[in-house]
Amino acid sequence: MKILTKRNGIIALIILAFLFPIIGQNDYYLHMLTLSFIWAIAVYGINLLSGYTGYLSLAHGGFFAIGAYSLGLLTVKSGMNFWLALVGACLITCAIGFVIGLIALRTKEHFFAIYTLCVGYIIYLVIDKWEGLTEGVRGLIGIPAPGNIGPITFDTAASQYYLVLVFLLAVIIVMYRIIHSLTGRTYMAIRNSEDLAQTIGISTMKNKLTAFVLSTFFAGLAGALYASFIRFIGPDIGSTSIMFDLLMYLLVGGIGTLSGPLVGTLLLVILSQNLQFLQEYRMLIFGPLLTLIIIFYPRGIAGAIFDWKIKRKDKKPSVLRNDVSIKVEEG
Where does it live in the cell (predicted)? Predict the structure, then answer.
């Protein structure tokens, strides 16, 4: 009976994640991991659309900001209950994503990427200039922490870590169910050949729009969790630099893989925190690193490990056949 199986490894990682606040007892590391988990949720949204449907959206930084500002405005200016505001923020993001998706998905390839990049920048400008609603460069201050659920409170770093971890695990489970379902296979069929998918009767526009809205839901959820965790937001969270950070996490971790968004986000966030002493020179490390990964491992770290396992499995039968032939010759 094998102990080192994929299932046991995943269970061990989940147990380690839940035990980390007890083992580590360091608020700085908890803060860093909580932020990493929030970014990872947003990256899973990009991965669903770009990795499995084949449409590279550069507007998800804007949808992240919409989720954050929706929660901030509903709680700070409208005085809404946090959990209702969280649901409302996700619904608002999805509604805006639906409208934008109807237009954006009529374009393809680089035209789609350029259009969504423009949309993301327009969202940033609206947040920055509409001072009557968003407070402009002053930002929103005093965003409340998550409300209590019975006796459970979220006023400590550990409790907020557990809350975000539960949301992250839920997102990963949802992603797993989508990928291994008929819907997921439909998305991959569109990615591989949209024309062929149409000829076999797949409604490509309907499926692409569904994937787009789901991806904006994940981005809005991440933005809302970010706002409640940081307690202050400004227009910078909708800037294009945030979008390219999210895209970098995805490319390094592995686009079109289930574990890639989490691997890439954790690796780069931890690495960037440890290289803070280099300040603006950090990109001298990240730039060549990203270039080398894209050249040699186009599917990222998770994709490279998966490909290595496939090659290893393919070699085993040939080794067994050679052993059998040797024994026959000796006999």
Answer: Cell membrane
